[in-house]
Specification:
The chain is an alpha/beta fold. It is about 55% helix and about 15% strand. The protein has 8 helices and 5 strands.
């Protein structure tokens, strides 16, 4: 079986983790072996970098430093987990990937997209998903979901202001419009079952 790489993107509280688990179960019902992972993280080295990135106050790192840390974490993740799983014919479902860096540190953080992609080309040899799902949800609804899930323990990114998160939402829309073959935008405000069904339907051309 051919391994496939699927990423789930979107703003805070969009339901990415929930849909990663639902998609894993749906693919297992079809006899497809899957690995669910996340970014930053997914490998021992990348998880260590995750702790640096997610903790501390909002101003702990500049956008440029964040981009470098994300690129390093992703390089280890791709080398140690993603490429080996794909090579073994498994499907990899990743909760965030390069497009989050492009949105958060790139568009919202003020770093040129070409610079982000150049780092990705060096660190991860430019590996892109076969299909990227953007779960789109309003900023305030996403904030409410995040607070219900995490309480006051928001990470450095969730704690940023509404204008930042609006810029992130707009960035994902731009990416989807520019790369319609890879991206699919899904209404994250639907019920989890409806979102899961929409994702599965939009994978029809990749399913064996």
């Amino acid at each position: 079986m051919i391994g496939r790489f699927i990423s789930l993107e979107g703003g805070e509280g969009a339901g990415k983790s929930t849909q990663a688990r639902r998609l894993q179960a749906a693919l297992a019902d079809r006899g497809i072996r899957t690995v669910v992972t996340r970014e930053p993280g997914g490998s021992e080295g990348a998880e260590a970098i995750r702790a640096l990135l997610m903790q501390g106050d909002v101003g702990r790192w500049s956008a440029h430093t964040e981009a470098l840390l994300f690129a390093a974490a992703r390089a280890d993740h791709v080398e140690k987990l993603i490429r080996p799983a794909l090579g073994a014919g498994q499907w990899v479902i990743c909760d965030r990937y390069i497009d989050s860096t492009r949105a958060y540190q790139g568009i919202a953080g003020g770093i040129d997209d070409a610079a982000i992609l150049a780092l990705h080309g060096f660190g991860s040899r430019g590996l892109l998903p076969d299909r990227t799902f953007v779960l789109e949800i309003g900023v305030e609804e996403g904030r409410a979901r995040s607070e219900a899930r995490d309480g006051i323990a928001a990470d450095r990114f969730a704690a940023r202001g509404a204008a930042f998160h609006e810029a992130v939402t707009g960035a994902f829309r731009e990416f989807a419009a520019a790369e319609p073959d890879r991206f699919r935008v899904i209404d994250g405000g639907l019920s989890p079952g409806e979102v899961g069904a929409a994702i599965l339907a939009a994978l029809g051309d990749l399913l064996p």
